[in-house]
User: Fold these one by one.
Assistant:
Number 1:
Amino acid sequence: MVSVVEPKTARDVPPPEPFLAPPIACSRSDLGVTSSADSVIRTEGLGIHYGHFTAVRDVTLSIPRNQVTAIIGPSGCGKSTLLRAINRMNDFIPNVRTTGRLIYRDLDVYDSRCDAVDLRRRIGMVFQKPNPFPKSIYRNVAWGAVINGYRGDIDELVERSLRQAALWDEVKDKLRESALALSGGQQQRLCIARAIALMPDVVLMDEPCSALDPIATARIEDLIDSLKRQFTVVLVTHNMQQAARVSDRTAFMYMGELVEVDATNVIFTRPGKKRTQDYITGRFG
Amino acid sequence: MNGDEGMFAPNLRGRRRKGALFAAICLVMTLLGLGVLAVLLVSVADLGAHRLSWGFLTRYPSRLAPESSGIKSAIWGTTWVIGLTGLTAVPLGIAAAIHLQEYALRNRITRFIELNIANLAGVPSIVYGILGLAMFTRMMHLGRSVLAGALTLALLVLPVIIIASREALAAVPDSFRYAAYALGATRWQTIWSHVLPPALPGIMTGVILALSRAIGEAAPLIMIGALTYIAFVPEGLRDDFTAMPIQIYNWVEEPEQVFRELAAAGILVLLGMLFPLNALAIGIRAWHQRRKTW
Amino acid sequence: MPTNAAKVREGAIRYLLMACASVSIVTTIGIIWTLAVESYHFFKHEEISVLGFLTGTRWAPLLEPRDFGVLPLVCGTFLVGAGALVLAVPVGICAAIFLSEYAKPGFRGFLKPMLEILAGIPTVVYGYFALMFVTPYLLQWLRPQTEIFNAASAAIVVAVMIIPTIASLCDDAFRSVPGTLREAAYALSATKLEVSARVVVPAAMSGVVAATLLAFARAIGETMAVALAAGATPKLTLNPFESVMTMTAYIVQVSLGDTPHGTIEYQSIFAVGMLLFLVTLVFNIISQQVLRRFREVYE
């Protein structure tokens, strides 16, 4: 549902990756960690612009904790752009401007005091095309944890993450082999394992199955379902059936605007807006 | 709960500091490198500038009378040799590039020629000098002439010109060629009127850079027997000669201060020749990048 | 339909161009032939054997008793070449990282031409720098017993000469690494330096190796700067502060003197030249193979 909330004054995005930015993490306890019990991420009138083009317009959305939220819509509707805004991956695009607020742990992620690198430790991402590093399977999963100074046993972390990603049994005997030797579906599960090894709050998934065959897709959909016990998942997909199968809440976007958001079974059986209805029934898109 | 602080020690401050330190080191190294280069050039200028004069450019060098030495023979020698080198290597190189890029079939022979050219580009210049000594000086009885020197340098720069020209030709979009073929042009007509003109700036850049390299080469010319401390300029292809880098080398070898000053002055003249050439090449490339419409 | 005359002209042009392309083959054959023939004459002398040449440790072609063991020259060449690599490779890689990952487009447009200028300075000028500045002001200040001619000063200036090559090739290699790998690393909470050093560089490693090999081949082929800076004393030493003689410096030295055709000194040029040619050829070929495999992965 589109809420009517006045957007905050426009504020420019801080320059991309300023390595001299003050390193205040996004969730120090002295900032008051009192996230609401229900939603882990909240946008308020979020707008994303490339130069003169507005990719996302005035989106106000709540992502509930420990649920799978799907964002659907036709090509070019801005769903990927919205997703990438959550962990500030849009910072790498030149000429990008973000207006409005995106609240995570009671702090506006686009506030200049927020450290993007720290944010990405808590909000992970899986990409459309599997992109494992040209390293061994073990090193792939362990990479993020090592960089971030994991204090525990890395071997145990790697095994745990691979198990959670439903990949352990297939690779446990070849952890030191190259990740590039795996099949596409396995590589994507490896990327998921890599992301959850950092024990994030939220896992963002940008069309994770679009480059995979149906069997690999089915396995990953099962995986997504099991992940929500521990993580919050935000899934962008152009496949409506996938959204219907896997998600608890669905948001429908069209031409940069959030048309409707509701429980999945509501969206797919009795959507409130006509445009949503048209999209669901295949009239366009 | 996920993301709890306990399991990770991200040390963001430390990591960011390392990144900033790296960038700072790179910047310092760059500035240091540039600074050192500037200091060296200034020192050379300081040492040799007072010897620069029209007289320096028009007098001959003399080991016995360094105070009244000049660099005339070397300037003219270089001009003759490089001029001939250009006349030989440029058409040959561009022709070879056209063949390889536009005509040759993609078979093992072509692959072998390409590999061969890449290897030749990496052969040390002194080996070309040895080749020139055996082939041009002795076998073809050209002695230590301007012609022998030019042919040797031509072989040296040929691979470089071929590679640069090929890149320039490859950068021309295929649609240009197809448009011409569609109008009934033969292959050569297409190349001459539709492929070469847009590739020309790139080819010229490559040629200028290759010839600048040749201007600075002394070893191959020494190998074929270029002279030193001569008091004449070449007047024909079979004449003996000396070249600028050779003259500078000879001056540097002498221990007395006055020769060091002469060397510095010679270096200034040499750099004075090379700098405009390199600037021209870079300028052509930048102009072409901005102006081209594909 | 092209006329007969046009067809003949097209055919003639085609063959003319092909002839031009085969000049390169003639060049290679010429190099190998001339080196081989005179080397053969060189090794036909009773006192010289290939084994003795390749393993002998005394190089004294002009003094009595004469010795033709090439190892001192090889040692001098590798001392200068390896020393140059040790200096140039880290600087070149850092320069490439800075160029491709850090520098803003304006600065990059300034830095790249700067590197090209460095690469365009003739080698005699670098030799002059070595003799006039590097040795007296740097090396003799650091270590006063440094000789006037020494391998270290040659290594330093050769390093400066090859840094642009390494930086440019590594820059190309880093740019070939797909952006999706960088994205994945950033999404795992990595800083820019970590992405560059721990993902991009390792992913481009074979490109870096190819650049290093190519630069090494260039370094050992350098003549004038090394002849001016390192000296003319063939000796087997690992001390960079002493005067040494490289293969290239020897060849030049013989040519500067009056060496009649057919003498053993004249022929020794070809034997040493053959060795130099083969060594650089091997490095160049390996470098190209490595580069080809790198390109296959990323293109």
Number 2:
Amino acid sequence: MSLYQVQKLIYHVNRDPERRERYRQDATTFVKSYDLTETESAALLHVDVRALYTMGVHSLLLRPFTLLNKVSNDDYAKALKGLG
Amino acid sequence: MPIVFACAASHAPGMTAWTEAAPKQQADNFLGSYRKLGERLAAAKPDAIVALTVEHWANFFLNSMPTFSIGRAERYDGPIEEWLRIPKASVPGDVKLAAELIDACLDGGFDPLFSDELLFDHATYLPLHFLNPNMTVPVVPVIINTLTPPMPTAKRCFAFGEFLGQVLSRSDKRIALIATGGLSHWPGEAQHGKINIPFDKKFLENLITGDHHQLTAYTHAEIDRNAGSGGHEIRTWIALAGAVQSWKAQLIAYEPVVPWATGCGLVEFSQ
């Protein structure tokens, strides 16, 4: 597992418009530039909120990242239901 | 009187990004009070705003996470969040004041990181949107790590604020000192939306009565348990309490706004 790399990717997409654009143009290629497992890559590519949260992505990285990916407040809450 | 204005204010992305999700009365009271605080800040005619603030992965990552940092940039671009519904701007900095603060810190027993290039996320940009709406007053951000542990203790934050207050009181500039963050909230967590009203009210009481013993006694575990990951941001308020110890604090607004997932407080300090 490489939670550090997952979080670093999200940090880059959230804060850096140039990287964000590259991520939006071709997310599959973009995630390959980080040292990720297949599970982590899949969670990122599918914006799998529950998987990213349970692997330990910081909530203040995850929520802005999911907002960029148009995940509504309701859908975000639904994805985390039962974890609290 | 070089510190001419002081206030503490919560921030939450929902205040601007999904304002209308909140009950209208709560939103109108809180945001109206926020704007009025901004009017009083302007009336104090500050030369600069020193912002005791936090950040949300806008600048620092786990490869380098400073406990205290001071911005020395000429400008701060923000907000980084394109969904915040606040127009982007380049906020002027005050390089000279920032350099004076950094020098004073190093001479006085504090060793902050300094940076000539920082971005603003909603933590700093949203309060400025209400308190410095034209983004004309230059800003010096003083960032406290409340994002990821280990974080500075409440006692250390109070002492840092006390020290900054002493330095700023000798400044030849008129300073507006603001703190931003808190109160209880669990942003983006499974408990997102939870607000601990008793915790918030007790904290506000400690602030308003000037109970510095209680303010400096908050532990990391206690804040984490009772006020959530976002509650750690009360360290900026505690620093402000240290900076203006002889001032009288007044509660301007407190609204536990569930759709904004934050116990939202505004406190103004006056001499």
Number 3:
Amino acid sequence: MSNSLDAYLVLSGLLFAIGSFGFLARRNAISMLMSIELMLNGVNLSIVAFGAFIPGLGVQGSVIALMVMAVAAAEATVGLAIVIAIYRNKKTPLVDEYDAMKR
Amino acid sequence: MVKLIAQVLIALIVLGMVTGIAAIMLLFLGQDWEDALFWILASVMIIAALLVVGMRDIIRCGLAMIVCFGSLAGIYVLMGAPLIGAAQVIVYIGAISVLILFAIMLTQTKDAPSRLVFQTQAGPAAVASVVVAILIALAVTATDWGALPARAIAGANAVATELFTDWVLPFEVVSVLLLAAVIGGVFLAKREPGGPS
């Protein structure tokens, strides 16, 4: 079981689906960012699984996963800074109170 | 106090169930250590991810996210990518989780309504994500991946050689991206002198 590509890919799909549910359903902006991190981890898991099991890929899967981690760190930095900047103006972390572009 | 003991008991029962299932697999079903470890880590990861999206208290969500990332690092090591597991621990548990916990500390006030956790679209979102999970599982199991060899261990030497020969340009670009993200984060979160407090 642990030596089959299917198990890891199904696991990463589950993680991605859980993250997408959190992104769609939570009201708190930071919860949405946490759900995005879950989704990125699911994608990363599938990339590493492909790199470990497909022989032509070799260690490139690990290298791509490292790149994804760096980009995810940059995304978390900027995303949390945006959330804090909006919180300073609107005094709430709930995303359905952010209606500045609707009015 | 009773509530605390009940929570600890529930956690112990869940842990015992997970390890019990793994022990049964190991002893009676003739499976090996790697399968048992995979099941333990995978179930801990999925339970922690469900807690991240499902719990009401957002600080506990952040702590469950750390558990999820930690077990994912274990899965990376199990899969034969120990360097990725180490990077997962350093980057996600060490940096991103701390960043998110600090942001939670800065943005959660006492009077913010914590009871309204989910949007009104939570039901359709749950249906959509279940459909996504089922579709991914069906597509994965229906695909023929060909004859897969035993998995290769991506050691640190091989990864470093690949990273600093073929991938050196993306590596440098990522360093510039991180610098831009740091400067952008400081600029966005900076308090302006005459602006709102």
Number 4:
Amino acid sequence: MSAPEMPAQVSGLRLGPVESIPVGEGRAFAAGDEQVAVFRLRGDDVGGGPLRAMQAACPHAGGPLADGQLDGRKVVCPLHNHVFSLVDGSCSSGDFAVRMYPVRAEDGQIVLGDRPAG
Amino acid sequence: MTRDGDARAELVVVGNGMAGARAVEEILARGGGQRFRITMFGDEPYGNYNRIMLSSVLARNGADAGTDEIYLNPVEWYAENDITLHAGVRVVRVDRFARKVFADDGTVSSYDKLIISTGSRTFFPPMDGMWVDDRTLTPGVFGFRTLDDTRAMIDYAQDRRSAVVIGGGLLGLEAAYGLARHGLEVHVVQSGPVLMNQQLDEEAGAILRRVVERRLGIGVHTGQRPTAIRTTGSVTGVVFGDGSAIDAEMVVVTAGIRPNVGLGVVSGLSVERAIVTDDQMRTVDDPDIYAVGECAQHRGEVYGLVAPLWEQATVLADHLTGADPSAAYHGSRNATKLKVAGVDLASMGIKRPERDDDEFVRFSEPRRGVYKSVVVRDGRLVGATLLGDIGKVAFLTQSFDRGLPLPEERVELLFSLAGPSQAQGAAEMDDSVQVCNCNGVAKGELVGCVAGGTHSVTGVMAATRAGKGCGACKSLVTQIVEWAVEQGGGAVDVDQSASWYVPSIPLEKPALIETIRAQNLRSVSAVFTALVPEGEDAGSKMPLASLLKTVWGADYVDERDARFINDRVHGNIQRDGTFSVVPRMSGGVTTSAELRRIADVADRFAIPMIKVTGGQRIDLLGVRKEDLPAVWAELDMPSGYAYGKTMRTVKTCVGTDFCRYGLGDSTRLGIDMEERYKGLESPAKLKLAVAGCPRNCSEAMVKDIGLVAVGEDRWEVYVGGASGASVRKGDVLTVVDGHAEALRLTGTFMQYYRENARWLERTYDFVPRIGLDELKAILVQDRDGLVAGLDERMQASVDGYHDPWLDGREPATPGQFQNSLPLIVLPQVPVRDGSSSPTGAQP
């Protein structure tokens, strides 16, 4: 599964300093009308920098994904242990998936959205 | 006789027990399904089950735990094989001239061939008080023969404290063992002088008795003939011929069995001790009627063990289907291998020398509960008994069955000196030697299964059912599978990961602890770096964090991301992302001041629900994550750890303070225990309780650890109880003297559990896995000298305690208590402003 198109109004949002997320954990942010969980990986196992962003609520029962435990590849929802890929949002334990958002660190800030062209 | 164009003959089988069903299986295996339309009657309302396993069902100590395994053929099997099964229906008469059977539900079935396999029933010796009327046993009296008997016993035993088993044979000891596992005080009464006198001589019987009494705590009374059952509507005791008596709330009668021959008698068949058959298992009166199993008498013998029954079923099927018209049964040699009350026993042939020149070689080691003897006649083995150590059973069985030449050094019959290794033993066994007596599996079938591609012991066991009965043959099955796989040039597949502590590290818990200590790995990330080449694994973090905290105590390097959310914010996450807050209220005792503060907090933070918990505490539910630090501060009470894989609570009753019946100060002990062990990490949650008397008001008998006062400051220590998704009565580890010793031993057990239990393995699985006897040896008798170390490490953990709710004043990580869900209207990130703020983190 590839990331769906970024809603226009949130692309390029700066969510705050990278330091606001402890290493190996996630925090939830509001970005426009969207709720986004941003994770800061301890190890960058798959490339693409230390940050990942996905929808904040688990598609299964609305669990807070930012409270989940993660490793370099996946995050586990704290309510019912559904496992989501940090690469493509796919779920290895259920028949659903989460929406992924492009996210990057820029000048120590979390920036949602694609890297500016050029 | 045919029906509707179906040219098949009618085969009716009366009796759906192990013999009847086995006979049908053998018939089907010989293509009998094409020749016969098969109808079976069984008076039990089930498919066919393994009666031998009733002992393990009883000992399993948990309602229906494992009864699935007992079924040999579930009811679907009958349909799949085109067999008409009348379950729960009893056949009352056979009209041999009209060739019909009549059942008690009015069913009439015609037959061309009839098999009678009605088995046997419990013999109830004539005793006053046994019966309420002709058909009804006095409440509390049980036979031990059927699944219903067993379930009724388990049910009845729940609220009972004592039982007498009449009859000290195999079945009696199994019943006693099972009931003792349910926590009852059990006495076995044997009118003769020797336990299991069918298999054991006096010396072996005495050794078994010693094991039963000392290791299992079961009372044994030999040479006592019970004459009456004392009742007051239900059982209250057993009275003996000399006027003495034993108080008991239940009685199990295992004083022998009687073949069910009533059907044979009313149908005009020759019946002596059982229905008389010829060498083809046909009744001597009617060539179309066969009898097989415990209801059949062949050459004067009636067999009560399962191995002869398999042989009879084979001959019957060969003859009936015409697969081998010359098949003949010549009787079985009396050889058996079993496990009685947890003790291995093998016996074959005669027990003692019978002729002047019989050689008799014996070894006896009462302290270890080991006895071995062999009887040799004219250089051939004619008898052997192995008790407690059956390492030589394969070799002896083969020598006995085949009359093989014996080693000149007769002692080699009892011990492997420089003799063949186990693998060679497996190699030397003939393919036809039966390995699993319970399920009738020969070595050849195991070898065939391996040749068919199954290379794991568990796989072969599942496919052949070998070792799935009493389990006594598991080591032999393992040897044979290993040998057979090696023969094929392969290696045995082992599902090792099942025993690993976490899926990402191929080590069992003790080895993992050793590695962690040896490599000085103090944080979860250090463990991943050192031991997991693939890097982190989310699912392994929490179990590793728990283990490291247990191993290192205050020296553990805590990385917050290794914690589950509950442990990051010290509350239990709820379905809506809010948390529950349960302050510690040691022993369930509180004060008016605490209650006022709780009420104030509930008002101030608009707590949606205040609930009294099963652990005698007060739960504030629906607390928002961001409110947690303020809630703790206002409560000014310590954490009750209702969220962690930790020691949770110690439930108490009012003990001696107010209760009229209290035998011990359970409240004080409970409070002391909770204060001492508060917040201890463990592989799974621990729920404790202390009861001031055996009325058990605080439910101590169904807790992970429970103490029950029995008077004079003595406490029974129960471990492995449960009353959640599993319900299990705890096992009595020991009885201790005094509060201090109760506190210490509780800690010893907890530390052993912390160091040895698998992740999330509750004590109700852990205790049976390790075995109560083993736990007693390690923790009470200190057999291995571990106790001092366990106690020392427990003390270090106790000393390292720190109340996590004090942390709220200074968050441990940025945004520790920041909301992660859109529960409330979130402050919006100003669009393209650059200075966004995380949700809900306002001061």
